[in-house]
Write a structure and sequence with these properties.
Elements: H1 21-28, E1 33-37, E2 43-44, E3 59-63, E4 67-76, E5 90-97, E6 104-109, E7 122-131, E8 134-141
Antiparallel strand pairs: 1-2, 1-3, 4-5, 4-7, 5-6, 7-8
């Protein structure tokens, strides 16, 4: 008899849209893809259909390095979903990618003790399967 999943056994799962599908498909292949304006070169994240700098609609996904710096972080002590109850505490962070000042991604920091986190610390993407079929671009201290 198959094991029944209970509430909390799986994390909230992103629901890709026509605008975000490229991102999630890239993550599944362990590629970090960010939209880039083909008119002015500006990176556009969170995905949307218009460049916030020049208002062009000529945007295309481009693979980025996955390297950046820790811009901000907090330690989460209260679960917002049953899946996270046994994962507390964890680090919620904003990482600024090296490709462009201001290009930031909300993520988690893994494999780094909380007391060693420093704003400006070099980090790198760590593609992590958090549930069967769900990989997320988490970040760790750069080697």
């Amino acid at each position: 008899m198959p094991t029944q999943l209970k509430a909390g056994d799986t994390p909230p799962v992103p629901v890709p849209t026509d605008v975000t599908r490229f991102f999630w498909e890239g993550v599944a292949r362990h590629e970090l893809l960010i939209l880039r304006c083909q008119s002015c070169g500006h990176y556009v994240h969170h995905p949307r259909i218009v460049c916030s700098r020049c208002q062009s609609t000529d945007l295309a996904p481009e693979q980025v390095s996955g390297r950046g710096t820790l811009y901000s972080h907090t330690v989460v002590m209260q679960a917002f979903h049953p899946y996270f109850v046994d994962k507390l505490p964890y680090v919620l962070a904003v990482v600024e990618l090296e490709e462009e000042p201001g290009l930031r991604l909300t993520t988690n920091i893994v494999d780094c003790p909380e007391d060693e986190l420093r704003i400006g610390m070099p980090v790198e993407v760590a593609f992590t399967e958090v549930a069967p079929g769900l990989t997320l671009p988490l970040f760790r201290r750069a080697a």
